[in-house]
Design goal:
This protein has 94 residues and is α+β, with helices and mostly antiparallel strands. The protein has one domain. 39% of the residues lie in helices and 23% in strands. It contains three helices and five strands, in the order E-E-H-E-E-H-H-E. The protein has a five-stranded antiparallel β-sheet with strand order 1-2-3-4-5. The radius of gyration is 16 Å and the shape is globular. Pfam families: DUF3567. This is DUF3567 domain-containing protein.
Length: 94
């Protein structure tokens, strides 16, 4: 969990793709690209968006910028609002 407020929750998910592939394939694992990403839940709308690939890279850059220049909660929420506008998936179980 990276962030949790009344409006948003942000989770960094780190996939163990190689371990999963090894378990599924036995002694002969096939190469699998790890799919790390970020889940942003908009608690107000009950929807979530999962960022991976280039979207996750952009969000990671935002997090690194925040580490150098500590934002206000309002600035964080404004940024999350922009990403949350992509959310289409209803949160069923969390």
């Amino acid at each position: 969990m990276l962030y949790n407020s009344d409006s948003f929750a942000v989770v960094h998910l780190v996939a163990n793709a190689q371990e999963l592939a090894s378990a599924a394939e036995g002694d002969h694992p096939r190469p699998v690209m790890p799919r790390h990403g970020f889940e942003i839940v908009d608690k107000r709308s009950g929807k979530e968006v999962y960022l991976d690939g280039s979207w996750a890279e952009l969000f990671q850059q935002q997090i690194e910028a925040w580490q150098h220049n500590t934002p206000t909660q309002e600035e964080v929420e404004e940024t999350l609002e922009r990403y949350a506008s992509l959310a289409q998936t209803p949160v069923v179980v969390h």
